[in-house]
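so the lab meeting is tmrw and i was supposed to have these ready like two days ago... anyway. pasting both below. for each one the top line is the aa sequence and the line under it is the structure tokens. i havent really looked at them closely yet so no promises
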Amino acid sequence: MKMIIAPDSFKGSLSAPEAAIAIEAGIKKVLPDAHTVLVPVADGGEGTMESLITSTYGRRVEVDVTGPMHVPVKAAYGILGDQVTCVIEMASASGLILVPPEVRNPMISTTYGTGELIRRALDDGCRNFIVGIGGSATNDGGIGMLQALGVRLLDADGNEVGFGGGELHRIVEIDDQNLDSRIRESHFLIASDVQNPLIGPNGASHVFGPQKGATAEMVESLDRSLGMWADLVQAKTGISLHQLEGAGAAGGIGGAFQSFFPSTMKRGIDIVIEYTKLGEKMQDAALVFTGEGQVDYQTASGKTPMGVAQEAQKRGIPVFVLAGSIGSGIDTLYEYGIHSVTSIVNRPMSLAEAMEQASDLLAQTAEQVLRTYLSGTHLRSS
């Protein structure tokens, strides 16, 4: 019996490859001779680079860049097996995870380091880019990234502005004559599930600013400043970012990609499924196991279990979702080929305990789910 094991990470406890190995261990306790195919996946956020490097036999490149709070951080990008495709997780260079909660401030946080990663990958010969833009600490409209790639953003005195969303209102001129010419020779596939426009009540500042440290006053200031930035971009490029779908992703860097780069935005899990060839690997499979740390109503909006299930549904393959915890609103998931959603927490325990024992719990749950399924199959056939 062939089974596909395609989980995301269980954040804080297991990477996607580790989760896949744990699930396989549980399956092998039931069917030692089962043909298991491990395809660790991600939805465009954390773990995407690792998933794509693993599946294409690529390599990881570490580089020092400017972090979101202007101090150096060690970031990384991946070069896939074709040696010309680069995968970047924006969070590696400009992520919220890099900034302690008490100092988060989108008025000063910058995307400059993300631009530095792109520039270094261009130096490595990469011309195809996959950029996951989840988990950013920034609300600067992508100006830091543009600055790192040669764009001069000038104030009323002709001087270049500094870093962060608090500098947006000072920009009066966009000089892109020195934008790295290799950008135009490249293509950027932007992994994002965010469809928010740049400004307004559903824009970058109002929806995502508070989690990045923005006060109510900052939110209003940043929204006005992004509106002024959008006016300048439209005058320069003819592209109106104000209400453009996806322009508000990652504090507005989605709009920067849409207006200054040859780019396409696509759901993150769909990109990973394509590059890992998950659909092809499902050929002749009997069952699919997937999972992640939290499964709830948001899962249906394009999270890993949903994407994997949709791919399996095309082939009529039952899908079992294993979750660290289960929230509300999962009923709709069963419309997309998901056979069951099961929590790996099998007894009263603290979160710390569950995370510490995640590997064993995942293996045990995979074993019990498979035993239950096979028992039901046996009863139906008898």
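ok protien two:
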Amino acid sequence: MTARDDIFRAISQGLTRGQGGAVRKRSLGEIRAEAAALLHHPDEIRPALSGQDPVAAFIAKCAMPALGVSLARVPDVAGLASAVAEYLKQHDLPNSVAITPDPLLAGLDRGGIETHPDCAPDEAVAISVADWAVAETGSVVIHSSATQPILHAMLPRHWLVVVKEARILPFLDDYATYAALRPRNAVMITGSSGTTDIEGYFVRGAHGPGFVHVLLVST
């Protein structure tokens, strides 16, 4: 008898006997059936959304101070250039941004914004396009690809992310179906990066962008 055997025997006895000996050992089939029952009616265990539909819920979630996210509604892709220019002006940022090679961002340079493909570690502003967003948590999902380098979402001080309303999923588990079909390198980001030290001072940009701005495109 080894120490390993002693540990597993104690665990087995604890699981099947309990303090009063009332916990019955269940079969593998019973355990699987219980787990399946929890997911049989997902609507019964899902939390209520913050809005009447996924778009409204996502907007409401982004407005929560804890996320540290700002959001602008954009009527269509053609309006992205002016929305980006407005953000740069409001925050007194340079008129030069790092963009991913996503076709949706191709028109930014025609809007008078200087663009470049590479994102430096000290980049002031970078822009990405989200694959999905989640209304339940206010998260955005980026899948690493030739048109969506992950570093654009990690290195800049100000991160702008384009989200199409049609790509907003109601709940976090709704994304699981799509996650299985895409590359393993997927990043889910919920709000800006920050931390609080022992003295209680909030520091932005501790592990990523200090400012996150969602450009919510209607069509």
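from a quick look at the 2nd one: The longest helix spans residues 3-17. The CA atoms of residues 29 and 127 lie 49 Å apart. will dig more after coffe
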